[in-house]
Prior knowledge:
16 helices; two-stranded parallel ribbon; mainly alpha
Amino acid sequence: MRRSFVFFNLLIIFIIIPEMAFGLKPGKQFERQVIKFLRKEIITRADMVMYENPVTITSFVCVRSAGGIHDFYSEGDYWWPDPANPDGPYIQRDGMTNPDNFVEHRKAMIRLSQIVGSLASAYKITGDEKYVSKAFTHLKAWFADPETMMNPSLLYAQAIKGRYTGRGIGIIDTIQLMEVAQAIRVMENAKCVDRQLLAAVKSWFTEYLEWLMTHQYSKDEMNARNNHATCWVMQVAAFARLTGDQKIMDFCRARYRDILLPNQMAPDGSFPEELRRTKPYGYSLFNLDAMTMTCLILSDKNNDLISYQTADGKSLKKGIEFLYPFVTDKDKWTYPHDVMYWDEWPVAQPFLVLGAREFGVKEWFETWKSLDHFPVVEEVIRNLPVRNPVIWFD
Length: 394
């Protein structure tokens, strides 16, 4: 009788609850599925970028910039020459991207994010430090080399000809550094890492955080009513986690609980400020991705923002549940179509895979697997700052 009892318990341990049997944390089985699904492509892409040399903003000079060679510069995407006054201030055409505006610095930053994200992903699943060594050549060029580094501020982003030399709204451009910051966290304990270089890179992010917390441009962006405010909290949280600034992380947690979620989400889980735009579908996806990442970055054993719910029932899960049916079938979308790039969305949105992981919804995971994981359209890439889910599995 005793022998049968022991055998039955062993069956429970080794068959019914294998994660407990092998000491795995909750979610590890899911993470292995993601890695298995992406592994071949991750390694292929990482091996390709091993041959890429660093290219920073100092390689691209725009004569219209009011800043210097080390200052990030971009021009507002939706601003165009005025037909009635061609030499005068630009006018806005919301949602319509002007292909002649200067965005080379942003493209260079996106390239950095793609390269470092790919290398960190490959390192995480293989343990091969050759990927780390290569990644840090790019990090050195961007954040530590006096000849090529970017200044830790955003004074000249999303300028408008004849109106502004820079705007707070341009701070959204550095969401492209989020995966760079996370990649550093993944790679920082590798034996090959130069500790002085690592300290210099982290110092850059500390300085940028200080600028983000004090400059009026940044305060304006923080107080926006739509995805710009979400992206402000998301990237500030990512940089604060990298630099170990718990005070700023607590500040971001309060912004999410008290400002972002209650003010941006409607009772049905939609985002009215995004729905009123000329690209309501794309912006809804974008904001939900940003909100998902914000919750992921800021959640720990003492702070569960992922499951947090307001008194009137607003939550991250409700946001995913609202948008998910329109991801699987865009014909159900009852709002206006986006004026540009309607056909290019959705792709493998982070809220699907990370939501599936956190809430255990297999259907979301299967949908994520069926979508495009490596889009090539610049507008889509720009609005998909999280492209390497593997590095976000802590």
